[in-house]
Amino acid sequence: MIRRRNARTVALLLLPVLAWVLLLLVIPQIRMLDISLRFKLPVDKIGTAADVHTLSNYLEFVQEPLYWKVFIKTIYAALTITVVSFVIAFPIAYYLAKVSSGSWRRRLLVLILIPFWVNEIVRTFAWLLILTEQGVLNQALRALGLILEPVSYLYRDSTVTLGMAYAYMLFMLFPLYAVLDSLDFSLVEAAQDLGATNLRVLRHVVLPHALPGAIAGGIMVFMLSVGTYVVPEILGGKGAIWFVQIIYRRFYDALNWNLGSAFSFTLLVLSMAFVGLVLRIFGLSVRKAIQS
Amino acid sequence: MSSGPLDVQLVDVTKRYGELDAVRRVSLDVRRGEFFSILGPSGCGKTTILRMVAGFIEPTEGQILIGGRDVRGVPPNRRPTSLVFQHLALFPLMNVYDNIAFGLRMRGEAEREIAKRVVGKLDLINLRGYDRKRVDQLSGGERQRVAIARSLIIEPTVLLLDEPLGALDLKLREHMKEELKAIQHRVGTTFIYITHDQGEALAMSDRIAVMRRGVFEQIGTPADVYERPDTPFVAYFVGENNAFKGTAAAADGEMAALDSPVGRLWGRNPARLAPGTRALLFIRPEKVAIGAGDGVENRLHGSLQEVYYEGLVVRTRVRLSEGTELTLALPNTGASTLPATGQPVTVKFAARDAYLLPEPSA
After folding, report:
1. Considering only alpha carbons, which residue of chain B is nearest residue A289?
2. How many domains does chain B fold into?
3. Is the pLDDT of residue A4 over 80?
4. Is there a single domain that holds both residue B179 and residue B88?
């Protein structure tokens, strides 16, 4: 409840945030949009009569099948990562919210958080140390006699998927933890009491309750995975090309900011449209579940 | 009610949490079709018993038999019991129909059969036409009835109820008491009902177990526990009571006298207390009358204190000459025959209405 005489104070407090959004988000984005709608010109031609607006950068994306292929692959991989992170995070979130309690729960939460105090790049390099041919995993497997020759785990799509699922785990874990924490455990007991097996309790009681959290976490993991650069660059090697790497190369290798900007906007708009579509499907089913 | 097959048996059941005995060597026989209540203050272990019968926790020692079968190790989803939770635990994302149908769906019954039986249950609870309603559209009493229907549809051997009326307001609670009893009468299922409200237990039960600190103090009919308590705890906890402290004096067959600060009082002596024992004499507020009359053994003098007009009864307190106070509940006969506050009065009660019990040592 904001009283009228406090409105000025509130406005003052909001000013830094508004300035932040305006200066660091809105204006650069508008500038990027403008750049994406122009030809790449030599420096001395910029601002002259030749510097006109054009859709050619966007047309290049549409006309080149390779870009489409990489884009679809990126969306598919991001979806996989979202599903994998849900599958990994759900049991952990359930354990934290409904099984553990008191100081044990607090300690576990800290244990989960500590690795994420380390920078994402450093964490990804840690995976490198584990998965490389002379890495921890290969050494352990060889010591156990399970394999004779070292296996190359790196530079595969599945490795990138796992690495990203790990990198964005918390964004899935915490929304799930929050919704599961609000689940009244007597609902689980009621379902058991009425003859439901554990699997059916999960299917009919726990998962429907967790759906909003799963969607919230899913959107975050998906958007972050679509837009990531670090993990595929480090774990993916040369073979695995993600869409963001294409953008990166347009900017830094080809020094073509115009094309890079156009690709960035294409990625932003298309992945948002995709999330919107998924939300619509799930959003409808959520409403139906409540109404029916 | 005195015979018939047993639906639930507890044999020397103990539940220990570390050093604490939540339930200590409790034995119980619940007969088929009986409305059995476990009455006790919060924390006495009554919910623990219920959850052991439902299968959510296992007893540390002892045996639980349902329909004659030992259920140790049988999980809740395979026990022939059904629990109505304290806060009902209706599934919030499902409508009334799906809530009630849940148990049958878990058994894999055909949808046509389910529909038939759900409608039957909706009739039973007088909520026909409510199938598509959301749970949050229901009133407190309606939710209550849906929860009962949801539990009854799987036709349990015994229905367990964990203080389901606790959340309702007074008027609705009174109504639901009658409704519950009526439902039980119609379906004939055995009910085990947990409550801390002695009014609920007395009104609905065939038998009541009064529980304190993990043990049963008394098991009996409502009249037994009200009129003939076994222990001072039962006498205090069930209904209201006046107690006089003193020493048991002369015993005369069924009767005994108590020498108390207000004089010698006579009452029944169910515990066969020997003269000289420290004892309490109990007399219910409604068993005390005002006025000097004949044929009544106990007569006391005092002055009338506050008068509380409660409608059904008029409650007053009489300060006895020695300073102790006695609570009276006089039937509201319409005639205002009460003397004015502060006036000297004589109160009397019959020896057969009073009883002596040993004074608790703790």
Report:
1. B93
2. 2
3. no
4. yes
